[in-house]
Design a protein that fits this description.
The protein is of the alpha/beta class. It is built from 22 helices and 21 strands.
Length: about 550
């Protein structure tokens, strides 16, 4: 076998020699035959045009070269097309045709080089799909969503109708991810997307924006109440049915925000922003509900953004102040401690309550810096009181975010060193949820703080999921009984039983108890009868500035 014959037989590229006289194949190599599912001998004498896929002839004939490219008179032609394999299935190929001329310059033969590009084409299609779709659910992504919204807007303009944009967020999805893992979370998202799709009309579009957020386009809305609300209610109901993922039986709910074209915006971005604003409002209203956008919502968002911006400057501008609420020892009938509660003296808004700015501080991360200031200021003030003979402890609330990310141990050590306050007079209050999350790392942090000598109390006890084992492992010193149980203890039998149980459990573990929210003498009497160690509440005093606290303290001595 000469070297040219060897190359022809063993080439990975399909090669065929076609006679120009009768446009029939005279030679084909094994690669050419294999691409089409034939043996080489089966293709001898066949015209190249006979192995086109019939449905692709129109495409090929109109493309560069087309089927006539196999019979070209120019020296070289390249094109991509679809051939038909022996079993009738299509195969996408890349073709290059070169002519061979005789001594007179006339075309005598054509050589066709051919490659199977099916895999490449499949990858290209996949890449194109992923460019416009979410890889997990297969739903349109933000790019395709924007295009669909713009088309829906044009349709609404032509037909003088409306278009609704719905922003949907899963309630509590982070808990599923954190507790059961991302693989379970991914399956939940697939199930949710499938259920959402079943609730929609053929003309509607559902898109996943990432995370647990979905966007729905409802075009051609002629009756908002008659079309949008029934769909929304169907969406809410469909997500409430329990489903199985691996060995887990789960259920979830959604919060939905709705913006309408042209009422709430005339382009994609404003409509999406307002739908998201309405969705967050739905979450504020208790979740598992829907909310149409209103101008009032936008005003609230702007207020929140302004407040958040002001919050970042508040520490540098010395706008924060601590108020102190006395804690009364029921046996000694005297003040033994004070809970430090932050207040914000806003230069324009006046006194901003914690319930309004603490969530903002936590969501923005500013709570870490604010928490550091609170610890330092509380230690400084307590040390001043000690020098005045007021030997009381000071309790500071620690945010879960501050506990995880605030380098708490070093902050506490520095505050104690700078102020000179003995560690046993500083009490750190954490919620039950802090102990339950990332238990081992939390335990290490608590152990280091206990080594410093500070006290640890569980705030709002009874509202979380603490167990006796956790209380023992974390070496807790005190349980603060949540005020929701305390306020009605005199009239509500169930609350009285809960409080009594907490007090008895604490005594069995050698823990102190303090009841919050004591507002009258009757509640105080019940707590004393049940053996509670200490109390705080409006029956004794509201939180007050340091100077007022001193006067109150000295007035009770």
């Amino acid at each position: 076998m000469n070297p040219y014959q060897h190359i022809f037989e063993h080439a990975k590229v399909g090669i065929a020699l076609c006679s120009a006289k009768d446009n029939r194949l005279e030679m084909v190599n094994p690669a050419f035959a294999s691409i089409h599912g034939y043996e080489p001998d089966e293709l001898i004498g066949v015209s190249p045009g006979e192995i086109f896929a019939p449905e692709c002839l129109a495409h090929v004939n109109s493309s560069r070269g087309g089927s006539s490219a196999y019979f070209c008179t120019s020296d070289d032609v390249s094109f991509e097309t679809v051939h038909t394999k022996k079993d009738g299935s299509p195969v996408e190929v890349s073709v290059h045709v070169t002519v061979i001329r005789d001594e007179n310059g006339a075309v005598s033969h054509r050589i066709t080089n051919l490659q199977d590009i099916s895999e490449r084409k499949s990858i290209e299609k996949q890449i194109e799909f992923l460019a416009y779709h979410d890889p997990l659910t297969g739903l349109p992504n933000r790019i395709l969503l924007k295009d669909r919204v713009e088309q829906a807007i044009k349709h609404a303009q032509r037909n003088h109708s409306k278009m609704a944009l719905l922003c949907i967020d899963l309630d509590g999805f982070k808990t599923i991810n954190d507790s059961l893992g991302h693989s379970v979370g991914d399956e939940v998202l697939k199930i949710v997307s499938a259920r959402l799709k079943k609730c929609l009309r053929k003309t509607d579009t559902i898109s996943r924006q990432g995370g647990d957020e979905f966007i729905l386009i409802l075009p051609d809305i002629t009756d908002t109440k008659g079309i949008v609300i029934p769909i929304v209610k169907n969406l809410l109901e469909s997500l409430q049915r329990a489903f199985r993922v691996e060995e887990h039986t789960l259920s979830t709910s959604i919060s939905i925000g709705i913006a309408l074209y042209p009422n709430d915006g005339e382009t994609f971005e404003p409509l999406l922003q307002k739908a998201e604003t309405a969705m967050y409002k739905a979450k504020e209203l208790g979740r598992n509900t829907y909310c149409f956008y209103t101008d009032q919502m936008n005003a609230e968002v702007l207020e929140q953004l302004t407040l958040q911006s002001d919050l970042l400057k508040a520490i540098g501008n010395n706008e924060f102040v601590l108020h102190y609420q006395p804690q009364i020892d029921l046996k000694e009938k005297r003040i033994t401690g004070a809970e430090a509660l932050i207040r914000w003296c806003h230069p324009r808004l006046g006194m901003v309550p914690p319930v309004k700015f603490i969530p903002l501080a936590e969501s923005s991360g500013a709570i870490v810096q604010i928490g550091q200031w609170v610890i330092h200021e509380a230690c400084r003030q307590a040390c001043i009181w000690h020098r005045q003979g007021m030997n009381i402890s000071v309790a500071v609330n620690i945010s879960p975010i501050q506990f995880k990310r605030g380098n708490l141990e070093s902050v506490v050590k520095e505050a104690l060193t700078v102020s000179g306050l003995p560690p046993r007079f500083l009490e750190l209050e954490v919620t039950e949820s802090v102990m339950m999350h990332d238990t081992e790392n939390t335990l290490r942090t608590v152990c280091r703080l206990k080594e410093v000598g500070v006290q640890l109390s569980i705030d709002d006890f009874g509202t979380g999921y603490s167990s006796l084992a956790y209380l023992k492992r974390f070496a807790v010193d005190k349980l603060k009984i949540d005020q929701s149980f305390v306020r009605d203890i005199y009239t509500d039998h169930d609350d009285a039983v809960i409080v009594k149980t907490i007090i008895q459990m604490a005594k069995s573990l050698n823990l102190c108890t303090i009841a919050e929210g004591v507002e009258n003498e009757q509640v105080l009497c019940v707590l004393e009868e049940q053996g509670c160690d200490a109390v705080q509440g409006y029956h004794f005093a509201k939180p007050m500035e340091a100077g007022e606290f001193e006067k109150y303290y000295k007035g009770r001595e």
